């Protein structure tokens, strides 16, 4: 009898242990950065509920952290050995973490066939290092040029004849400046920010690419901007400044959207969907006077396309579960819903046009074909800061274009050595 009782007790203990295993959940943590007001309620809770209908054994915890200091926060987590499982990364952070061996290759968990069937190869390759893919694209957004209809009408410029090329834009700028001077108007042709706070992805880099140049060599080991194309790109910006086409304050500080909303500039350079959303929020009448114009062409017609993506940190609690979550987020249905709500464009092959009925975002969506990503080198921020200082020195007349680019080239090559 005692032996039978002991067997029964052991059987009950085993049953309880097995029951706990059966109901145990794998937990993954995702770090995101704010895209919307009340984002947890609008996006993540519904997404997690849908995900758990498919994978009830995976618990997802989403943490929404501030944009400010995100690179330091992520690096600290990696160095301390306690990173989240899934993280939102832009393409310019790729080498920062891949070079440290801090990311899991996605193709170890999601087949390359699935990845290539879901995303354009040109976009997917932005997140590729060697033979491995590390970034699963979630959103994309393109920079466009927004013109002020009311300013153009006052200045006598046909809103249906917006500049297509650099030369045409310089003609446009001269026309606006002449009108403003003759009529005593405090209006400038273009809001172009050269401040140290403005990323060059949204200012000088698109101009460099339009000139046919590049920032660094293809292997990322040397500077490439000190070239005839780089000189032409800097000369274009310097011409805008020297001729008084840019408000002086924007050279060192200030916001271009303030000038645009006040009707003090005819065009604002480098505006994405988020920028349009911000100006719409500040002025409900924004759509009545804002017009998205063509991407300018020097030698090439090109602009910057941002890439927001998901990645898996090495040391993830469960990389397989993290990959299932990423595969779910980048599925066509969920991806389209995410981008509709955040105002970005979907990178999914065959995704419907999300903004066809929007007079501004619809144009940007069509211009995605002219986009390219920025630098994916580990020292991206340091290289950019060098070129920001060079641009300011050139515009302020503190150095010639040739001297500034030569000095910047030496400094960047030292950084990349």
Structure report:
This protein is of the alpha/beta class and 417 residues long. It is built from 19 helices and 13 strands. It has helices at residues 2-23, 39-54, 70-79, 94-98, 112-118, 121-124, 149-155, 166-183, 204-210, 228-242, 249-252, 256-261, 273-282, 286-289, 319-329, 332-342, 361-366, 380-395, 401-416; strands spanning 26-32, 58-64, 86-90, 103-104, 128-129, 132-133, 136-142, 144-148, 188-191, 265-271, 290-293, 303-313, 371-372. Strands 1, 2, 3, 4, 7, 12 and 13 form a seven-stranded mixed sheet that branches. Helix 9 (204-210) packs across helix 10 and helix 18 runs antiparallel to helix 19. It is globular, with a radius of gyration of 25 Å. The protein starts with a helix and ends with a helix. Residues 1-23 have low confidence and may be disordered.
Secondary structure blueprint with pairings:
Layout: H1 2-23, E1 26-32, H2 39-54, E2 58-64, H3 70-79, E3 86-90, H4 94-98, E4 103-104, H5 112-118, H6 121-124, E5 128-129, E6 132-133, E7 136-142, E8 144-148, H7 149-155, H8 166-183, E9 188-191, H9 204-210, H10 228-242, H11 249-252, H12 256-261, E10 265-271, H13 273-282, H14 286-289, E11 290-293, E12 303-313, H15 319-329, H16 332-342, H17 361-366, E13 371-372, H18 380-395, H19 401-416
Parallel strand pairs: 1-2, 1-3, 9-10, 12-13
Antiparallel strand pairs: 3-12, 4-12, 5-6, 7-12, 8-10, 8-11
Helix pairs in contact: 9-10, 18-19
């Amino acid at each position: 009898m005692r032996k039978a009782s002991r067997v029964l007790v052991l059987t009950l203990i085993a049953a309880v242990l097995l029951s706990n295993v059966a109901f145990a959940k794998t937990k993954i943590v995702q770090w995101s950065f704010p895209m919307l007001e009340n984002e947890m309620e609008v996006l993540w809770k519904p997404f997690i509920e849908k995900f758990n209908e498919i994978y009830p054994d995976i618990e997802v915890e989403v943490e929404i952290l501030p944009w400010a200091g995100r690179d330091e926060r992520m690096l600290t987590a990696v160095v301390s050995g306690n990173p989240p499982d899934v993280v939102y990364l832009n393409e310019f952070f790729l080498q920062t973490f891949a070079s440290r061996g801090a990311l899991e290759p996605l193709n170890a968990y999601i087949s390359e066939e699935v990845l290539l069937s879901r995303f354009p190869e040109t976009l997917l390759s932005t997140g590729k290092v060697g033979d491995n893919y590390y970034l699963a694209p979630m959103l994309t957004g393109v920079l466009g040029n927004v013109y002020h209809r009311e300013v153009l009408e006052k200045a006598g410029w046909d809103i249906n004849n917006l500049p297509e090329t650099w030369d045409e834009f310089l003609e446009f700028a001269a026309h606006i400046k002449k009108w403003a001077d003759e009529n005593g108007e405090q209006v400038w042709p273009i809001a172009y920010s050269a401040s140290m706070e403005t990323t060059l992805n949204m200012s000088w880099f698109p101009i460099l690419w339009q000139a046919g140049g590049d920032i660094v060599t293809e292997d990322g080991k040397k500077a490439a901007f000190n070239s005839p194309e780089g000189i032409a790109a800097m000369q274009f910006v310097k011409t805008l400044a020297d001729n008084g086409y840019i408000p002086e304050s924007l050279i060192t500080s200030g916001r271009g959207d303030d000038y645009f909303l006040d009707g003090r500039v005819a065009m604002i350079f480098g505006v994405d969907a988020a920028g349009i959303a911000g100006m719409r929020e500040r002025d409900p009448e924004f759509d009545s006077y804002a017009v998205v114009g063509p991407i300018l062409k020097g030698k090439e017609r090109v602009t910057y396309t941002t890439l927001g993506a998901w990645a898996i940190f090495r040391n993830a609690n469960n990389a397989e579960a993290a990959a299932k979550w990423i595969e779910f987020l980048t599925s066509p249905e969920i991806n389209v819903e995410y981008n509709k709500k955040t105002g970005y464009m979907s990178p999914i092959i065959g995704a419907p046009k999300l903004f066809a009925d929007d007079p501004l975002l619809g144009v940007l969506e069509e211009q995605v074909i002219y986009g390219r990503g920025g630098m994916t080198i580990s020292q991206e921020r340091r290289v950019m800061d060098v070129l920001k200082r060079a641009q300011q020195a050139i515009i302020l007349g503190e150095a010639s274009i040739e001297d500034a680019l030569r000095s910047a080239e030496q400094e960047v090559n030292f950084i990349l050595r």
